[in-house]
């Protein structure tokens, strides 16, 4: 699953058809990025601005989401009672989660080759092109997430660029990393503030020590 750039899902090396509903994709992205369990009332407030039956709309979106990510006996959309909903993608590659895992120990601890691989995952803004009209709260959430990742990719690009001055025999991957910076100038755009070590985790998810898949 890729959430940086346009949303895309691949199954068995083939693109999976995405639902036409932007709210289903917004729900998918929110559950992935926030992690943990989310209350149904919170999801209704986030995605709907006064429909007649927001919980009915949410049930419909969850049914579409199950068809998209559940696989045989492997259920990834999890519901606890009638109040909480979560999404378990622990057995799948999700680019935003892998970024957090790769950099959990801080950028200085990441080899240039690995840092270059991480930068390759930044294909554009988080959830690029995904906008849902009539939901001010969702729009605010999306803007914050996009700004957060712009700042992170700018910091990581800057770190890799500075490493280009290191002796070539100390890191044979610097030239490849340099090409990434030249061919992806958008990675240098945006940016705000980042913690001193560049690390971060999503609420409800511990990425330290997790196994990347």
Description:
The protein has about 210 residues and is mainly α. It has 2 domains: about 10-85, Orthogonal Bundle (Arc Repressor Mutant, subunit A), CATH 1.10.10.10; about 95-190, no CATH class. Helix content is about 45%, strand content about 5%. The protein has 7 helices and 5 strands. The strands form 2 sheets. Strands 3-5-4 form a 3-stranded antiparallel beta sheet. A two-stranded antiparallel ribbon has the order 1-2. Strand 4 and strand 5 form a beta hairpin. The protein starts with 9 loop residues before the first strand and ends in a 30-residue tail after the last helix. Residues about 165-213 have low confidence and may be disordered.
Please count the helical segments.
7
The strand count comes to 5
How many structural units, i.e. domains?
A: 2
Biggest sheet statistics = 3 strands, antiparallel
First-residue to last-residue Cα separation: 12 Å
Radius of gyration: 18 Å
Unreliable stretches: 166-213
Helical content stands at 40-55%
How much of the sequence lies in strands comes to 5-15%
Mean pLDDT: 76
Helix/strand-derived category reads mainly alpha
Strand order in the sheet with the most strands: 3-5-4
Order of helices and strands: EEHEHHEEHHHH
* CA-based shape: globular
């Amino acid at each position: 699953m890729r959430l940086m750039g346009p949303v895309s899902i691949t199954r068995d090396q083939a693109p999976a058809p995405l639902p036409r509903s932007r709210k289903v994709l917004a729900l998918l992205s929110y559950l992935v990025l926030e992690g943990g369990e989310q209350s149904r009332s919170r999801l209704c407030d986030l995605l709907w601005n006064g429909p007649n039956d927001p919980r009915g709309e949410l049930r419909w979106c969850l049914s579409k989401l199950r068809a998209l990510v559940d696989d045989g006996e492997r259920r990834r959309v999890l519901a606890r009672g009638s109040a909480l909903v979560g999404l378990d993608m622990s057995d799948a590659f999700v680019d935003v989660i892998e970024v957090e895992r790769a950099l959990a120990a801080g950028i200085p601890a990441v080899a240039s080759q690995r840092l270059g691989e991480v930068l390759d995952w930044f294909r554009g803004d988080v959830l690029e092109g995904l906008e849902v009209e009539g939901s001010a709260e969702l729009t605010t959430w999306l803007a914050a997430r996009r700004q957060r990742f712009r700042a992170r990719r700018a910091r990581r690009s800057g770190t890799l660029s500075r490493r280009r001055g290191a002796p070539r025999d100390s890191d044979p991957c610097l030239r490849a990393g340099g090409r990434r910076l030249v061919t992806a100038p958008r990675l240098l755009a945006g940016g705000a503030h980042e913690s001193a070590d560049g690390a971060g985790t999503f609420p409800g998810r511990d990425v330290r020590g997790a196994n990347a898949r």
